[in-house]
Design brief:
Elements lengths: L3 E2 L5 H11 L4 E2 L2 E2 L1 E3 L2 E3 L3 E2 L2 E2 L6 E2 L3 E2 L2 H18 L4 H17 L1 H12 L3 H26 L3 E2 L4 E5 L4 H14 L4 E4 L6 H13 L4 E4 L3 H10 L5 E6 L1 H14 L2 E6 L4 E4 L5 H7 L16 E5 L3 H13 L8 E2 L17 H16 L3 E5 L20 E4 L6 H4 L6 E7 L2 H8 L5 E7 L3 H7 L5 E6 L19 E4 L4 H6 L1 E2 L8 E2 L4 E2 L2
Parallel strand pairs: 11-12, 11-14, 12-13, 14-15, 16-17, 16-22, 17-21, 20-21, 22-23
Antiparallel strand pairs: 1-18, 2-3, 4-5, 6-9, 7-8, 10-25, 15-24, 19-20, 24-26, 26-27
Helix pairs in contact: 1-4, 2-8, 3-5, 3-6, 3-7, 4-5, 4-7, 5-6, 6-7, 10-11
C-alpha cells in the first residue's frame, strides 16, 4: 500500500507554527541566538537537512568565539541578579514555563521528529519527561536547597542531540530553579528549532537562559574554560568528553560529564526466554541512539541456540520507517521502533563498520531489509540503517569495544563466569548493564563485579527520572552524579569541605 506524509507535519507547517508562537526567536528562514536577554540575528547559519527524508530544515547559526565570550560575560550579569531572586518567584517562573511547554507539546514533538528523526511516540515522551521531571523538582525543591546556595557563576550545558528536551531542557530548568543562570549550546547535529522554541518560552517567563550555536572548537573556550562559568554539564562521547574533562580538572571547575560506555546484557544459566523476547524490541527504541542502549549481548555458549530462538523473531519484527508516513491522511502517526539515524554520514559510518567487521571475521546473524520498512515512494533513505546483528566482532573493529550509537547488536560467547565478567566490562566502565540469570544468588554475587552504575536483573535500566540517581563507572562518567537531590547538589554550594557523590580524579564517592 502506498504511503503519504501526514498532512500538517511538513517542515514548512512546523516552521510557520514556530513563527506564530515565538516570532521573537524565529526570523524568516533562520533561528536566532539568545544572549544578554535578547534574541540576536548573529552567527552564520549552516545548511541542514532532516534525517527523515533529506529535506532542508533550519540550520544552527554558528557564533564565533568572541561573540560567545561576550554572551558568557552577559550571562554572568544575569546570574548575579538571578541568584538573589526569592525561591518562591523562581518556582513560579519555572512552573509558568512548564505550562507553556505543555501548551506547545505537540509542536515541540513534531520538531524533534523533523530535526532528529524520533518517531512520534518517542518524541512526545521526550517532551513529557522534561515537563513531568521538572514539575517534580518544582514541587519538592525546598528541602533540596536547605543549607545550599547558587554557584558563583552560571552553569554551562553542552549536550548531544538525541534528547534535547528530557536531558538538556530538563537540566537547564532545574539549574535555574536552584538559583543559577544557564548557558546551553545547541547540538551540532540537530534539535536547534526545538531548543529555540523551548528557550523562547522560558525567556518569556523571565528565566535567565542563554542559547548559543557554534562548533565545539569555537565555543569551548567560552563554554568550558571561561572563568565566569561556575559548572560545566556535558553529555556526549568519550573523545570530546576527555578534552572537556582535562580542561575542567585543570581549572578545578565544578563539572558533570556523562560519557558513553559499552552497556552490556549478560545471559547466564537463564530460562525465561518469553520475557526476554518481549523486551528485545524495547531495546531498539530510537535505533539505540541513546546513552543507555544495550548494543552488546554476552551469552553463555551452551545457551546460544536458545538465545537465538528468542532473539531473532523479536528483531525480525521491528517496525522501521518514515515517522510521519501514513496509509491514509486521516490515520494516526505510525507506531515505530525507530526511524533514521541522525544523518547520512552516521548511516554510512555504521554500514562501513559492519562491512569491515564481517570482512575481518564477524558472523552476520541478522540483517534487516528495506523491503520491510515503511517509506514514502521515492523518498531519500540515506539516513536509515536497518538492524544488524553480528556474532564475535573482531578486536580490531570499533564494534568490539565501543558503543555504535545505532541499531547494530553484537554478540560475544563465553564459557565461564570470569569470561562473562571480562566481556561485560570491556569498555572500562558503563552507565547501565543487565544480567539475566535464574538464580538470585548468582546475580547477587556477579552484579557487584559488573562495572556499571546501574545493573538490572533481567530488565533494562534507564537514565531514570525524578528521584532516581544516575552516574557511571570508569571512563563513562566524570564529576558529580545527578538525579533526584544529587542534581541540585551538583549545581549548588553546600557546607565548606563538602565532597559531592561522583567520579572525580582524586576520589570516587557513591551515593
Amino acid at each position: 500500500m502506498s504511503l503519504v506524509e501526514k498532512p500538517g507535519t511538513a517542515w514548512d507547517d512546523a516552521w510557520r507554527r514556530c513563527l506564530a508562537v515565538a516570532p521573537e526567536a524565529f526570523r524568516d528562514d533562520r533561528v536566532l541566538n539568545l544572549w544578554a536577554a535578547a534574541w540576536r540575528p548573529d552567527g552564520r547559519p549552516l545548511p541542514a537537512t532532516s534525517p527523515v527524508d533529506g529535506s532542508p530544515i533550519a540550520g544552527a547559526p554558528r557564533l564565533d568565539r568572541d561573540t560567545a565570550r561576550r554572551a558568557v560575560r552577559a550571562c554572568l550579569d544575569q546570574h548575579r541578579a538571578w541568584r538573589h531572586v526569592p525561591l518562591a518567584e523562581r518556582r513560579a517562573r519555572v512552573a509558568a514555563t512548564l505550562d507553556a511547554l505543555t501548551e506547545h507539546r505537540e509542536l515541540l514533538a513534531l520538531l524533534l521528529v523533523r530535526e532528529i528523526g524520533k518517531p512520534w511516540r518517542l518524541a512526545q515522551a521526550d517532551v513529557d519527561r522534561a515537563i513531568d521531571g521538572v514539575r517534580w523538582y518544582v514541587d519538592g525543591i525546598e528541602p533540596m536547597l536547605t543549607g545550599r546556595a547558587p554557584l558563583d557563576g552560571p552553569v554551562s550545558n553542552i549536550a548531544s542531540w538525541n534528547y534535547p528536551m528530557s536531558v538538556l531542557v530538563h537540566a537547564v530548568l532545574v539549574q535555574a530553579l536552584a538559583g543559577n543562570a544557564v548557558v546551553a549550546k545547541t547540538p551540532t547535529d540537530g534539535g536547534v528549532a526545538c531548543l529555540t522554541l523551548a528557550c523562547a518560552l522560558a525567556a518569556r517567563e523571565g528565566l535567565p537562559v542563554t542559547l548559543l550555536s557554534g562548533s565545539g572548537g569555537e565555543l569551548s573556550e567560552a563554554l568550558v574554560r571561561a572563568p565566569e562559568i561556575g559548572c560545566v554539564s556535558f553529555v556526549g562521547g568519550r573523545d570530546t568528553g576527555a578534552a572537556v574533562a582535562t580542561a575542567v580538572t585543570d581549572l578545578g571547575k565544578r563539572h558533570v560529564l556523562e560519557q558513553e560506555g559499552l552497556n552490556t546484557w549478560g545471559i547466564w544459566n537463564f530460562t525465561d526466554w518469553t520475557a526476554f523476547t518481549a523486551v528485545v524490541p524495547k531495546l531498539f527504541d530510537y535505533g539505540k541512539q541513546r546513552c543507555t542502549a544495550y548494543p552488546r549481548f554476552v551469552v553463555q555458549r551452551e545457551l546460544f541456540d536458545e538465545f537465538l530462538a528468542a532473539y531473532l523473531p523479536a528483531v525480525r519484527g521491528l517496525r522501521i520507517g518514515h515517522p510521519l508516513a501514513v496509509s491514509d491522511p486521516a490515520d494516526p502517526l505510525p507506531e515505530l521502533d525507530f526511524g533514521p539515524v541522525i544523518n547520512a554520514a552516521k548511516a554510512k559510518d555504521l554500514t562501513d563498520q559492519v562491512a569491515e567487521a564481517v570482512d575481518r571475521g564477524a558472523v552476520p546473524l541478522h540483517r534487516g531489509s528495506p523491503a520491510d520498512a515503511r517509506f514514502l515512494p521515492g523518498q531519500d533513505t540515506s539516513s536509515y540503517v536497518h538492524p544488524v546483528t553480528l556474532l564475535n566482532p573482531p578486536p580490531s573493529s570499533p564494534l568490539h569495544h565501543a558503543e555504535p550509537f545505532g541499531p547494530v547488536d553484537t554478540i560475544v560467547l563465553v564459557d565461564t563466569e570470569a569470561e562473562l565478567l571480562a566481556a561485560m566490562n570491556a569498555s572500562n566502565g558503563a552507565l547501565v548493564a543487565t544480567l539475566s540469570t535464574d538464580d538470585e544468588a548468582t546475580f547477587a554475587r556477579l552484579a557487584p563485579q559488573i562495572r556499571a552504575f546501574k545493573v538490572g536483573h533481567g530488565k533494562p535500566r534507564s537514565r531514570g527520572d525524578r528521584d532516581e540517581l544516575f552516574g557511571g563507572f570508569g571512563a563513562s562518567w566524570r564529576g558529580a552524579f545527578v538525579g533526584g537531590k544529587l542534581l541540585v547538589r551538583a549545581v549548588t554550594r553546600g557546607p565548606a569541605g563538602e565532597r559531592l557523590p561522583g567520579n572525580f580524579p582524586e576520589y570516587q564517592l557513591m551515593p
